[in-house]
Amino acid sequence: MKTVDVRGLSCPEPILNVDEALKTDKELKIIISEPHTRTNIIAHLEKKNIPFTESKEGNDMIIETTNER
Fold first, then answer.
1. Residues 2-30, buried b or exposed e (16+ Cβ, 10 A)?
2. What is the pLDDT of residues 2-53, one digit of tens each?
3. pLDDT of residue 11
4. Are the C-beta atoms of residues 65 and 31 closer than 8 Å to each other?
5. Residue partners of 42: CB distance under 8 A and separation at least 6
């Protein structure tokens, strides 16, 4: 599982980083600090039909993509 840390980045950079990582690994751990970034990434993953789970680690939000469909 590849980790993609998008804390503190402005759009569209978080989406671009996630898309780049998805080219080589379908299982990602995406670390997010801003609620609007979380919303944008979730919408993007749903549009691409990529399953994911959500959790929190301290102040950060975590989205993990999976190969399960």
1. eebebeebeeeebbebbeebbeeeeebbb
2. 999 999 999 899 999 999 999 999 999 999 999 999 999 999 999 999 999 9
3. 87
4. no
5. 52, 54, 63
- 8-state DSSP, 67: S
Q: What is d(CA 55, CA 39) in angstroms, rounded to the nearest whole number?
A: 14
- Specify the pLDDT at position 44: 96
d(CA 69, CA 66): 8
Contacts of 38 (CB under 8 A, 6+ apart): 32, 61, 63
Cis upstream peptide for 12 (omega within 30°): yes
Q: What single-letter amino acid sits at 28?
A: L
Q: How far apart are the first and last CA of the chain?
A: 17
